[in-house]
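COURSE: Structural Biology Practicum
ASSIGNMENT: Worksheet 4, Part C
STUDENT ID: 0417
INSTRUCTIONS: Below are two proteins. For each, the amino acid sequence is given first, followed by its structure token string. Answer the questions at the end about the second protein only.

PROTEIN I
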Amino acid sequence: MKTMGRLFGLLFVTATLAHSAPLKIFVLAGQSNMEGHAKVETFDYIGDDPATAPLLKKMRTADGSPRVCDGVWISYLTGRGENNGEGFGRLTTGYGSRPNPTEDGGKIGPEFTFGIRMDEAFEEPVLLIKTAWGGKSLFYDFRPPSAGTYPRTPEDIERDRNPESGSGHYYRLMVDHVKSVLADIPRICPDYDSAQGYEIAGFVWFQGFNDMVNRNVYPTLPKDSRENRFANYSLWMAEFIRDVRQDLAAPQMPFVIGAMGVGGAKANADNLQFREAMAAPAALPEFKGNVTSVPTSPFWDEPLAAIQEKYEQVKQMAHLLKTQNKNHANRDGRMSPADQKAWLQEFEADLISPAEVALRQRGASNAGYHYLGCAKTFARMGQAFADAILNLRNDR
């Protein structure tokens, strides 16, 4: 009996020590690719590659259903327009893009494997606070306070867009939501021990597409210019890091910049310049050892992208037929809509094989600017973001 009593006491002490550390909180923020547009139906594709098959096993239970993390909770603020709402609970799938902010959207973003990795790394509970909205910019929507109010351009005024009142609106929503969660952590994370407190253990920023394609705020430079036309993004990103650390009272909070990787190695010059501008703040002396950039181009799925390019050719051909392009089949305008449809079907069948159709259905679920909605891509990115934060923490 004494042996059993000692064993019980040892188990009790061990269990107590396992949670005798502050709750680890990670903030994830950005636009549509932080939301995540990878449908759960594309999970099987992850298992086709021996290099990522082990990751898929972590994402599922033995019966093949999506994993529910015992030690990770999430609060997710998102929405469309002014229709914002919060979804929360134990981390599992469905915390990607959501038509209804409070309901499972059937998709994942980087948060799923990010949380799984953190669940492995920490004995204590983990809380993810995610704020993401599609189609948002750093120069306007997430504009940090230190950058001042966005100065409208003549084109903004002409098109009646980007009013000064909206400058930094989503930055404020993000910070206000984080503070709201911190004010009542047990609402989201029942395992929270107030005696141990919490630590804001890292921040991941994954955004960029709307800045990258904007030529109003980032005008094209002369061909002989050696400057990066996205240099202001680097300045605003650095200000964002400083401001969010100050607003969350976390001056040394590890910060990860997820650098745009759409297009992979075949990206155009503007895309490559933008990647450099995104990563640039990590090289500033003040951020040495506490800010890093993670390139996401290595996770771009080249086989799926090659198939997607063929579908884009079909789409372009449909336009050429409809507009009676002089170099194509309907140059004389004699083809009816039914004729055009039949011609396109034959064109597509000759261009895209049944095997390619099947592969695309298995691995892709969205457009190229959403990384093809490929769960393999988002899963690898989430894991890479987590590892980057853990490396920053270990190097302190």
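PROTEIN II
(use this one for the questions)
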Amino acid sequence: MWRATEVFARAAGYRKLAIYVRASNTLGQAYYRTLGFAECGRLRAQVVIDGVTDDELVMELRLD
């Protein structure tokens, strides 16, 4: 699915893709880094799940 998304985005002229990943999701962050995403921001205390507050990392992949 990722490859289809990337092919579509490039063909459509997208300049970048952006995603949100919870700061506690280190495995997810590592996976997105293997695809070329890099952290570009942080939303502090953005989510509360089961009473636990977590930040959201903003990651981007520049396509240009």
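ANSWER KEY EXCERPT:
Q1: The first helix runs from residue 2 to 11.
Q2: DSSP finds two helices and three strands in the chain.
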